[in-house]
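Entry under discussion copied across for reference:
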Amino acid sequence: MPRPNAQTGVPSTDVDPALRQNGERFRRLLEAAPDAILEVNADGRITLVNATAEQMFGYARGELIGQTIETLIPEDKRSVHVRYRAGYSQNPRVRPMGPGLELEARRKDGTHLPVEISLSPNRSRDTETVIAIVRDVSQRNHMEAMLRLSQERLRQAEKLEALGRLAGGVAHEFNNLLSMILGYSELLLPTLESDAPRTYVAKISISAKRAAALTRQLLAFGRRQVLSLRFLEMNSVVTENCQIASQLLGETIEIAVLPAPGPAWIKADPAQIEQIMAILASNAQAAMPEGGKMTFAVSTVEVDDENAPQYPNLMPGDYVVLSASDTGSGMIPEVKARLFEPFFSTREFGHGTGLGLASMYGIVLQSGGGVSVQSEPGQGTTFQVFLPRVQPDAPSELGVPPGKDIESLRGTETILLVEDHGPLLELAREFLSGLGYQLLPANLPLKALEISSHYTHKIDLLLTDVLMPGMNGRELAQQLRIQRPDMKVLYVSGFADRAFEEGDPSGPEAFMEKPYEFGELARKIREIL
């Protein structure tokens, strides 16, 4: 009888050509198999190993032949496996193991890998062995985990998109009402002589402004704000805004600033960067009720193909990083997982809206960046805000906002005023007419086109809402400029629809956010004209 090869178990003699051919075919199949294949005898010792098993477990074939199969089992599970093996020998059968189970094997270097195993009895006249086919599922598990993460992110994005649309619609109507409250308060205040009524009206105005701040948070997390973008040097911005942050933190919390070693330029809305720092400071203050330390640090990072896995939500490119670290209580994983959900808050009822971090997340995404969080219970929290790094092409692009010291707010120019909210249209017409302007009011874009077509004199300014029935403000301006190319445009809105987000040649300087104060509106008009 031919003797089996000690390495593979394949007959090594060529006594019978047919037997030799079958043995060679078996050897090729064995070595080409993508899974590890092992044969184990009744004593639990390995008698056959293929090439994939060597690669998977890190052993040379000769090191495994003759060893017990428990060599490839994690040490803490070996005694249990011996009992399982004894039970299987009493009832040998084809048995796949792995789907739905968490099986692990052990490599020579002591590391573990997730596997699926299929057992099959192998009987002959003289021997009874078991063939074990072992599949490494670590790559598959990784892909499944990435798929689950992508699906969860997609669900979260869809939820935020739906909530964002709802918030935008609510904010649009709410900002019109707030504009009315602020406008009439502003008109009423100078007419009052008694201190008490003046105080009441002033408080009404303050409350309306606080309500406006809440709508801005709603718009921010829904990414539906129109941005007034400027080139900003992040080291300077953080230093300047630390005074506001320190007021939010209180006297018991120390604040520190660590600037980047060189200039760190971004292009962003200054008000939104201020809002981000205020949100981070407020969040840190809640985490340190007994006091502590908060550090704002600025740095830069380049995301490329090599380090991209560390920044899964960022596109390749250069970023400025604003890190905000506190020495507070930290977060448990369950809280961290829901951190950016709108209206989720760990604070007591009445002490937070749950919109702060959600709005910050929306601001950063709208700016083309990302946010990461590191936090452990009792170890504090670090937020990292990534914003695309830019380089201003010329000093003129640094975008210093114009001053407000305007000699006179009066004017005689002609303004085409388009506002679909009737009461606000009437209020704005009354206010601007009182300053001397010639007003052409229209409650719909089509009405504005009709007025323009019949008006034979110059229209100096189109003052229009953005979101209106039938046509948005940008489309209206484009049509009017065909006949009136020199006409200036000022957009006002508390909500940016998709068409306007693409931008407009008139630039972000020709935009005012609702609700606005009429004094600021008059100053903006004089700046444009």
Observations:
- The domain at 414-528 is CATH 3.40.50.2300 (Rossmann fold).
- Residues 349-353, 394-407, 497-509 have pLDDT under 50 and may be disordered.
- Residues 31 and 405 are 84 Å apart (CA to CA).
- The longest strand covers residues 112-123.
